[in-house]
From TrEMBL:
Lineage of source species: Bacteria, Pseudomonadati, Bacteroidota, Sphingobacteriia, Sphingobacteriales
Keywords on record: ATP-binding, Cell cycle, Cell division, Cell shape, Cell wall biogenesis/degradation, Cytoplasm, Ligase, Magnesium, Nucleotide-binding, Peptidoglycan synthesis
This protein's name: UDP-N-acetylmuramoyl-L-alanyl-D-glutamate--2,6-diaminopimelate ligase
SUPFAM superfamilies noted in UniProt: MurD-like peptide ligases, catalytic domain (SSF53623), MurD-like peptide ligases, peptide-binding domain (SSF53244), MurE/MurF N-terminal domain (SSF63418)
Reaction(s) the record says it catalyses: UDP-N-acetyl-alpha-D-muramoyl-L-alanyl-D-glutamate + meso-2,6-diaminopimelate + ATP = UDP-N-acetyl-alpha-D-muramoyl-L-alanyl-gamma-D-glutamyl-meso-2,6-diaminopimelate + ADP + phosphate + H(+)
Pathway terms, separated by semicolons: Cell wall biogenesis; peptidoglycan biosynthesis
Length: 486
């Protein structure tokens, strides 16, 4: 059992009403989840203000409240703590509630627009293979030493996050590799965590619905590095335009990796084939199972981080050469008549360009590339025409379809995408709202040797339409269609 006085250690509050000697059973920031004895943290959200639910939380059994403004009516039986920013406070109290688990293991955070899941997953697989007990917090799933725990977010909320970290500590984990999304940084989900290292992959267009401008998006990512402690490492992709910016104000040890520029950790692509990458990493030449230039960056980031974590170079490279990446990233299947189907999570303009340029680089002859692609609803609208344009520039045929329309009209999302298409390419484009039909049509258009890329949903096992999630799996669809093709 924890007392409020323990939980608020290190928390800067402007006012305390009460004695802080309450026993606290749980930390809750959603009034609908309050249980008797909860500490309710009122957070201002993007849709509603948690302050409006304080009285409801108290009615349902909350015994203490952290807030930025006191409600009009306060009861004497409940402790109130006033803070400047409740979301920051939520991070601190969550870490305290679970006895600061992040300080008891080596926590590595990965941030950037693309590659976070791949890098974090590879690190998790690598360190597990090297004999360590590890944890993973990722978009695809969370893992504690082999046990899979479903993920709802790329970076969980502070309570869930510290709970998972404390389970990792309990199970004897030495390391945790986690994705740090820009939403998580902006919403202070990672406040109160002690990081051993931070890794930056790249920064390109995404999430401008949330961050509004690219400068704000960049600032969110940079904050992660600004707040790393001096004994941590800050590892950046120096080939990225903003790689150096990330390190500008960090107190951590600055380290760089890159394929093009001078860097602490360097690699060169010797071969880039469908079967894998042949890289020269520092002075070693090694074959890897992963495909594409962007994965050369991901592999190099993982290698550099493992070196910074003082692992043996030969052991790292030997293990890394055997590993495959995260689910739904360049997963492929070949039909009996030799059509290649690829499922990839590319859902930003840069990722679409990378995956398609990789397919171009590694295809053997003049096989046609047919791309099936949609864009998520209730997300950055400005990336829609760009993703469609990029898909068209790099494909022989494109079928625009639905991703997760969420609350939006799927046909309107497709119309937003069509805006980006050059009129000359229109006749090579089809728009089919039903994703299943779109994938089927792409496969019917394909001839032996052709490549069908199904982009955007990767590992996802659902499609969300009008707020309802139904089972949908791109790879399952392809497998189903391919078994009937002869
Ligand atoms: C835009 C965004 O990030 N939203 C997150 C945010 O919700 P919000 O700001 O809309 O919250 P709100 O509904 O306005 O409510 C404000 C507060 O009132 C509370 N409330 C609300 C109603 C009520 O009856 N009682 C009550 O107490 C809420 O619990 C909340 O604390 O805070 C919630 C609680 O932590 C998150 O679940 C929610 O994630 C939503 C579901 C989401 O979709 N987030 C995505 C965009 C996201 O975070 N994605 C990134 C990855 C992106 C990438 O892959 O690059 C991620 O890390 O997963
Ligand atoms: N280093 C990289 N640079 C550019 N694109 C990449 C890189 N790594 C992966 N990609 C592309 O981006 C897609 C998403 O990769 P991944 O899931 O690793 O990124 P992420 O940063 O975790 O994404 P999210 O923000 O959705 O969690 C991949 O399917 C691939 O198309
Ligand atoms: N984590 C990302 C995933 C987007 C994946 C795409 N399939 C979509 O649904 O838009 C987000 O929430 O923005
Ligand atoms: Mg991810």
């Amino acid at each position: 059992m924890k007392y409020l006085s323990d939980i608020i250690e290190g928390l800067a509050f402007t006012e305390l009403q009460g004695s802080a000697d309450m026993e606290i059973s749980a930390i809750v920031f959603d009034s609908r989840k309050v249980i008797p004895g909860s500490l309710f943290v009122a957070v201002k959200g993007t849709v509603v203000d948690g302050h409006d639910y304080i009285l409801q939380a108290i009615n349902d059994g909350a015994v203490a409240v952290i807030c930025e403004e006191l409600p009009a009516r306060v009861t004497g039986e409940v402790d109130f703590l006033m803070v400047a920013d409740s979301s920051v406070a939520l991070g601190i109290v969550s870490a305290n509630f679970y006895d600061n688990p992040s300080a008891k293991l080596k926590l590595i955070g990965v941030t950037g627009t693309n590659g976070k899941t791949t890098i974090a997953t590879l690190l998790y697989k690598l360190f597990s293979d090297l004999g360590y007990k590890c944890g993973l917090l990722s978009t695809v799933e969370n893992q504690i030493n082999g046990e899979v725990i479903p993920a709802t977010h790329t970076t969980p909320d502070p309570v869930e996050l510290n709970k998972l970290l404390s389970e990792m500590v309990e199970k004897g984990c030495d390391y945790c590799f986690m994705e740090v999304s820009s939403h998580a940084i902006a919403q202070h989900r990672i406040v109160g965590l002690s990081f051993t290292g931070g890794i930056f992959s790249n920064l390109t267009h995404d999430h401008l619905d949330y961050h509004k401008t690219f400068a704000e998006y960049l600032k969110a990512k940079k904050t992660f590095f600004d707040e790393l402690p001096s004994n941590a490492f800050a590892l950046t992709n120096i080939d990225d335009k903003n790689g150096n910016v990330m390190l500008q104000n960090t107190k951590a040890h600055k380290k760089t990796y890159g394929l093009k520029s001078m860097a602490d950790y360097k690699a060169r692509i010797l071969e880039n084939q469908f079967e894998g990458l042949f890289l020269q990493i520092d002075s070693d030449e090694v074959w890897f199972k992963m495909v594409g230039t962007f994965n050369a960056y991901n592999l190099l980031a993982v290698y550099a981080a493992a070196m910074l974590l003082e692992q043996d170079k030969t052991a790292i490279l030997t293990s890394l050469s055997k590993l495959t990446g995260a689910k739904g990233r360049f997963d492929y299947i070949v039909s009996p008549n030799k059509i290649i189907g690829i499922v990839d999570y590319a859902h930003s303009p840069d990722a679409v360009q990378n995956i398609l340029s990789t397919i171009h680089d590694i295809r053997k002859g003049n096989e046609k590339v047919i791309t099936v692609i949609g864009c998520g609803g209730d997300r950055d609208k400005t990336k829609r025409p760009i993703m469609a344009k990029t898909a068209c520039e790099w494909s022989d045929r494109v079928i625009l379809t639905s991703d997760n329309p969420r609350s939006e009209d799927p046909a309107q999302i497709i119309r937003d995408m069509e805006e980006g298409i050059d009129p000359a390419f229109k006749r090579f484009t089809l728009s089919i709202v039903d994703r299943r039909e779109a994938i089927k049509t792409a496969c019917m258009l394909a001839k032996p040797g052709d490549i069908v890329l199904v982009a955007g949903k990767g590992h996802e096992k659902y499609q969300e339409v009008k707020g309802v999630r139904s089972h949908f799996d791109d790879m399952e669809e392809l497998t189903d269609i391919f078994k009937d093709i002869v």
